[in-house]
Amino acid sequence: MGDSYRFNFGDFQCLAVNDGDIIGNADLLFVNAPEEELLQVLQRYSLKKDHLPSTWTCLLIKTPTNIVLVDTGFGSDGNYGGRLLPILHAEGFKPEDIDTVILTHAHADHIGGCVDNAGNVVFPQATFYTWYEEWDFWTIEINLKKAPEWAANIARQKLPPLLDHLEKIDSETDIVPGIRAIAAPGHTAGHIAVEVESGGEYLLNVADVALHPVQIEYPEWYARLDQYPEQTVATRQTIYQRAAKTNAMVLAFHFPPFPSLGRIIKQNSRWKWQPSHE
């Protein structure tokens, strides 16, 4: 399978692309988890506290009318990403083929690939979509001072060149036919999820609503990277319910193993992650 995975979804053709891999740890991902319970859960899942693999799974969707990219990866050619463009090229897609880019939020691993090191927009024919609160937070200096410096610096580099290519959205709406943006705040101020519907089937890209499969079963365990923890926990319940109601295939940006696909089901009064690939 490597770092790309093609699959059909209703009338749409989809391509999952892993832009990079990192290793997380429990102190980063489960800030408020009770220590003893956390260790028991990690043991049950055969996970190591200081070695929790993470993917960066972007999604390309080719519909009868559009070619849509959800998130752009880190955008470097170093050790921390940069696989997106070479993989798209190998799969037959040039940057100028993409007419729509949806940015779920403005963290580096989602927006880094929008703009190259020279400040040029990488997908020159695309309209970029993001939530208005997300754009306002990451482009106003007084807000950036509240953010970690690494995140603020990436936003300063990558977002201003997009202004002439940008549409800000402020309510649940169809970006293109069959692809809908859904408010999912908490991880960041204007974080969104993306719902895809074709032929009566649903695919829900939850982006960073949850950062690890354990947070499906334990939605109350938030991460250090979740900007608004209480809102994150509430959003998880709403999104999990939506996924279960439509029996949606779910793509979660950081969930190993690639291609980060599965379903969210209810089992013994708790949500469970049911991966499609092991």
Question: What about the largest sheet?
Answer: 7 strands, mixed
Low-confidence stretches: none
Query: What best-fitting shape do the alpha-carbon axes yield?
Result: globular
Q: Which class do the helix and strand fractions yield?
A: alpha/beta
Q: What is the CA-atom radius of gyration, in angstroms? A: 18 Å
Q: What percentage of the residues does DSSP assign to strands (E)?
A: 25-35%
Strand order of the largest sheet: 1-2-3-4-5-6-7
- Put simply, the count of helices is 9
State mean pLDDT (0 to 100 scale). 95
Instruction: Report the helical percentage.
Output: 10-25%
First-to-last CA distance: 11 Å
> How many runs of DSSP E, i.e. beta strands?
14
SSE run = EEHHEEHEHEHHHEEEEEHHEEE
Layout of SSEs?
Elements: E1 4-9, E2 12-24, H1 26-29, H2 35-44, E3 52-62, E4 67-70, H3 84-90, E5 100-102, H4 108-111, E6 127-131, H5 132-139, H6 141-144, H7 149-158, E7 166-169, E8 173-176, E9 179-183, E10 192-198, E11 201-207, H8 214-217, H9 229-245, E12 249-252, E13 261-267, E14 270-275
Parallel strand pairs: 4-5, 5-6, 6-7, 11-12
Antiparallel strand pairs: 1-2, 2-3, 3-4, 8-9, 9-10, 10-11, 12-13, 13-14
Keywords:
globular; 7-stranded mixed β-sheet; 278 residues; 9 helices; alpha/beta
Q: What is shown here, in short?
A:
This protein has 278 residues and is of the alpha/beta class. It has helices spanning 26-29, 35-44, 84-90, 108-111, 132-139, 141-144, 149-158, 214-217, 229-245, and strands at 4-9, 12-24, 52-62, 67-70, 100-102, 127-131, 166-169, 173-176, 179-183, 192-198, 201-207, 249-252, 261-267, 270-275.
